[in-house]
Amino acid sequence: MTDQVIIFDTTLRDGEQSPGASMNTAEKLRLAIKLEKLGIDVIEAGFPAASEGDFEAVSRISEEIRGCEIAGLARTSIEDIDRAWAAISNAAKPRIHTFIATSDIHMKYKLNMSREDVIASAVKAVKHAKSFTDNVEFSAEDGSRSDRDFLCDIFEATINAGATTVNLPDTVGYAIPQEFAELVGYVKKNTPNMNKAILSVHCHNDLGLATANTLAAITAGARQVEVTLNGIGERAGNTSLEEVVMSLKTRPNFFPMNTNIDTKRIHPTSRLVSMITGIIVQPNKAIVGANAFAHEAGIHQDGVLKNPMTYEIMQPESVGLSSNKLVLGKHSGRHALKSHLKEMGYDLSEDELKTVFTQFKILADKKKHVHDEDLEALITEGILQITDIFSLEYLHVSSGTTVHPTASVALSINGRSVKGTAYGNGPIDSAFNAIADLTGTESELLRFSVSALTGGTDAQGEVTVRLGEKGIIALGRGADADIITASAKAYLNGLNRLEYLKKNPVTASEVL
Ligand code: KIV
Ligand code: ZN
User: Which pLDDT value is given to residue 117?
Assistant: First the structure.
């Protein structure tokens, strides 16, 4: 008999704790819709007590998403749990996820609490959560560095208090697969009432072992895994959803387990996460990296042409990478666009479609073939960023081997048009200088990177910037067939995110 592994996605909560990766409510909702289509069982939508922004996003997602459980994170305080419940109470399937640290080092230095106090606080929290919903998860933060018998004690007590899932996190990414599997097996065997709850794991990737630890935990009996798309998350990130799901699928003899994930949707969802957060997926990233299915060596190419199984352990199509990704051109109509977007998982309203169609026509005029990646970029920019403070009205640059690079820029700032001109070392530098003058930003450009969305010289350039101001970090992203315009869009997107972060200064990572 094959077992079911519950996929708990925390891209919107732990994933958002990646430095600079904050998402606004519209972006979170868009991603949650994609996660639902991907087949996620539990979406951890945020940490409602952390900030007003988090509360609002969790509430919106709870109202909209009907097919998945929606979890709200809470410390063990009554206020946190009340706040989490207020945010998720409209969900079709709400879950309160409460946590407290259980390692000696955390209890002594962070919490200043005894083991007895920690158990009492966890039990009180679970009972309070249980007064709102049957679906309660308890996490023992820093579980992998906790005393194993104490873990069994706190899990036994919280299950008795009503927890239906107990989660063992490797919060600091310290565990080694064999050791983690032993710990999971020990806790499963020595927690007397473990048969009344699902045992879950939540790993971080500080030693690059998050996926290995998660898989080892599954073999030892864990039946829920907490993961993020592209492995984004605090510090070195969390366990990557795509790596775990595809390991289970690719090695069924080793893992006789199922998930509800529609793996063909992995790649588009990964792209959306990258676009929304501005965090680029490294090219050699397993499953979703640009090179994950690219065969460079001649012998490999020859083998794959003769039989893909020579060098491919998974089919690219199985993760949503089609070999023929050419989709639309300048003669494609509104209807074709609408139905193709629907196939990609975007059910747009008439107004949204109108915006995207106008941008699509402009792009199709510049670029012969419009690919899925191009459409995703249009959607991200055309729909998700409508509440922006700064937007680009026009950009003219003059540059070349014998002229001093100059940029003339017109921006809309809170709906007011402003224009300016600046010089720079090159066309991008001059455009950035003009934008900096017009917006009066005090931010510093910490990183700038460019890549191509698709192949060919007419490909859209995708630019990512990392901005910093007084300790706040924001990422910005922009795409355009013109690389200088893409850069200006990325800079403005970063500035908009910076403004958002200034207004919503408390993020989950500051509270945790
Ligand atoms: O890493 C961790 O321990 C967490 C908990 C809140 C589950 O994210
Ligand atoms: Zn975590």
Answer: 98
Helical residues (DSSP H) of 367-512, grouped into ranges: 372-379, 427-439, 483-503, 508-511
Across the chain, mean pLDDT equals 92
- Residue among 190, 121, 130 at smallest CA distance from 156: 190
Judged on CB neighbours under 10 Å (0-12, 13-18, 19+), 324 is exposed
Domain region containing 142: 3-277
| Cα–Cα nearest to 138, from 101, 180, 91, 110 | 101
Q: Token pair of 114, please?
A: 């005894």
Q: Tell which residue, 170, 166, 144, has the closest CA to residue 155.
A: 166
pLDDT above 80 (res 345): no
State residue 505's pLDDT score.
Answer: 62
Residue 8 belongs to a domain: yes
Q: Residue 324: what pLDDT?
A: 45
Nearest ligand 1 atom to alpha carbon 99: 6
Same domain, 161 and 305: no
Average pLDDT over residues 310-325: 81
Whether 418 is covered by a domain: the verdict is: no
171 C-alpha to center of ligand 1: Å? 6
Can you tell me whether residue 192 is helix, strand or coil? coil
Which ligand 1 atom is the nearest neighbour of the CA of 512? 6
Same domain? For 147 and 223 the reply is yes
Q: Does 251 lie in the same domain as 307?
A: no
Both 273 and 298 in one domain: the answer is no
DSSP 309: G
169 phi/psi in degrees, rounded to 5: -85, 145
Query: In this structure, are 165 and 299 located in the same domain?
Result: no
pTM of the model: 0.84
For ligand 1, residues with CB inside 6 Å are 14, 99, 139, 141, 169, 171, 202, 204
Residue 68 sits in the same domain as residue 123: yes
List the beta bridge partners of residue 155. none
Please give the number of the atom of ligand 1 that sits closest to the Cα of 172.
1
Let me know whether 314 and 217 are in one domain. Answer: no
- Number of neighbouring beta carbons within 10 Å of residue 408: 16
Residues 110 and 61 in one domain: yes
Within-domain flag for 485: no
Give residue-wise pLDDT tens across range 257-274: 999 999 999 999 998 999
Beta bridge partners of 419: 410
Place of tokens 């799901």: 245
Q: How many residues does the chain have?
A: 512
What 3-state class would DSSP assign to 273?
helix
Integer CA distances (angstroms), 236 to 169, 170, 215, 350, in order? 15, 13, 18, 40
- If one residue of 17, 99, 103, 138 were mutated to test the ligand 1 pocket, choosing by the most ligand atoms within 8 A of its CB, it would be 99
- Per-residue model confidence as pLDDT tens digits over 162-183: 999 999 999 999 999 999 999 9
Confirm if 397 and 390 have CB atoms less than 8 A apart: no
Query: Would you say residue 41 lies in a domain?
Result: yes
